[in-house]
Design a protein that fits this description.
It is built from ten helices and 14 strands. By secondary structure, it is an alpha/beta fold. The protein starts with a strand and ends with a helix.
């Protein structure tokens, strides 16, 4: 079974307007409402690829109920911890001449709720996959990912970590099955700006030496590079299309990669992940199944 963890899920309220004038009344042209959060995004795209997953995390208030209902509608099973106080956050994304975002803070997460999440994670079995994605809310310990990986260390669980900076560096020693920095995040880990494939591969190898099993590096319009656990380098180009959306493309790539592993090897997983990321980038929302497989044909 595949599990995703979203510590601070949200409702994304996307507003399109022709022009945005600060300090004045603005009217929308079109609006969309999505449930979001990196782990939930992964689960949604997995569901669209006919792969079952369960979403874990914390929800609160009427917005939490809306997130839970939206996940069920998307075909995702959920096992959220329900917080007594506060409301799950709403993120406002304004798309005009420029894209502007205002993200909510989210509810406080008490120690008792964290203990409930740990109890749910303790039920994971050998062979399960766990996706940890995104930042840690301020009300949780900064070493949250480390605590989870330490807790699960005695089981053969395939862990996928999508994080940046110290949050990523600090968990590598626990041998996550897959990490997915983009090229900018990779460079920040080493204080450089990698510009060539050789530089990216060299830095990916350093992360493997530190403990990462497989390293997937997304490079925007330059495609993606995967350094697998056997030391093989896989290179994938980009899909053709018009970029309309930057939200969730990395999460979609992870979902596609995981789905690809379920039915093929590393090469296929990389291509399906690239197609899923591209399908989201070329859409207003998360990638749909038909769009993903249409783009996958470009990579054949």
């Amino acid at each position: 079974m595949i599990y995703t963890v979203t510590f601070n899920p949200a409702i994304d309220y996307v507003v399109h307007t022709d022009k945005m004038s600060l300090g004045r009344l603005n009217r929308s042209v079109t609006e969309q409402i999505y449930i979001g959060g990196k782990g939930i995004n992964v689960s949604i795209v997995l569901a669209r690829l006919d792969i079952k997953s369960a979403a874990l995390g914390f929800v609160a208030g009427f917005t939490g109920k809306a997130i839970e209902d939206g996940a069920a509608k998307a075909g995702i099973s959920t096992d959220f911890v329900h917080l007594k106080d506060g409301c799950s956050r709403i993120n406002v994304k304004i798309k005009a001449e420029e894209e502007t975002e205002l993200n909510g803070q989210g509810p406080q997460i008490p120690e008792s709720a964290l203990a409930q999440l740990f109890t749910k994670l303790d039920r994971l079995q050998d062979g399960d996959t766990l996706v940890l994605a995104g930042s840690i809310p301020s009300s949780l310990p900064g070493d949250m990912y480390e605590q989870i990986l330490i807790r699960l260390a005695g089981k053969r669980i395939r862990t996928v970590v999508d994080a940046a900076g110290d949050l990523l560096l600090n968990v590598i020693k626990y041998r996550p099955y897959l990490i997915k920095p983009n090229d900018q995040e990779l460079g920040e880990l080493f204080g450089t700006e990698p510009k060539t494939d050789a530089e990216i591969i060299s830095q990916a190898k350093e992360l493997q030496k530190k403990g990462a099993v497989n390293v997937l590096v997304s490079m925007a319009d330059r495609g993606a590079i995967l350094l697998d656990e056997r030391g093989n380098v896989h290179r994938c180009g980009i899909c053709r299309g018009q970029v309309r959306n930057s939200v969730g493309a990395g999460d979609s790539m992870i979902a596609g990669f995981i789905a690809g592993l379920e039915s093929g090897g590393m090469e296929y997983a990389l291509k399906l992940g690239t197609a899923a990321g591209g399908a989201t980038a070329f859409s207003d929302g998360l990638a749909e199944r038909d769009e993903i497989y249409e783009l996958l044909r470009q990579l054949a």
